[in-house]
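One chain is below:
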Amino acid sequence: MISKNTLNIVNKLQPFSIVELETERLWLRGWKEEDREPFFRLSHHPEVMEFFPNTLTKEQSNIFIDNCIRKFATQGGWGLWAVELKQSGEFIGCVGLNIPNIEFPFSPFVEIGWRLDKPFWGQGYTCEAARRIFAFAFTEIGLEEVVAFTTVSNYRSESVMKKLGMTRDEKTFLHPGLKENHPLREHVLYRLRRSDFV
């Protein structure tokens, strides 16, 4: 595990400023040390992680956060943001943009992804955060397209993609990060182009 000085270490490697975004109910911000425990809890929850290859150990959860922090540096201050409720200051999960480190059939691309703790499902937080991120991606970064994908059986996540106005590709694809015959390997792909963002 990288210590609480992770941000300082990354700053020495490449100076950067983390972009922070705001919605009516949410702050999308950089990661804090106090996010580690609640993020581990949600990443170890079997329902939250149902459509991921596995739940995360404490060490894996910390590595995930450390990688998010590093990507803020390499991606110009944007990435997978920690999400905080304005009203209570409570950490509820993460939503953001990512450039994967592995090759996909449709590379290169920028994806949007999310992971919220179960008590905060069904309240519109994911869509609220994602719409603000789309606005940032298209108007401030200048992206032409953002994609999202999930395993074919994750209808809940697919529903979010549809609500966001994303369009599903006709063909599915096999996730290159999962082994052959893995039950989650077949994925659906959704896209949103800048010209279609309202």
Remarks:
- Confidence is low (pLDDT under 50) at residues 1-14.
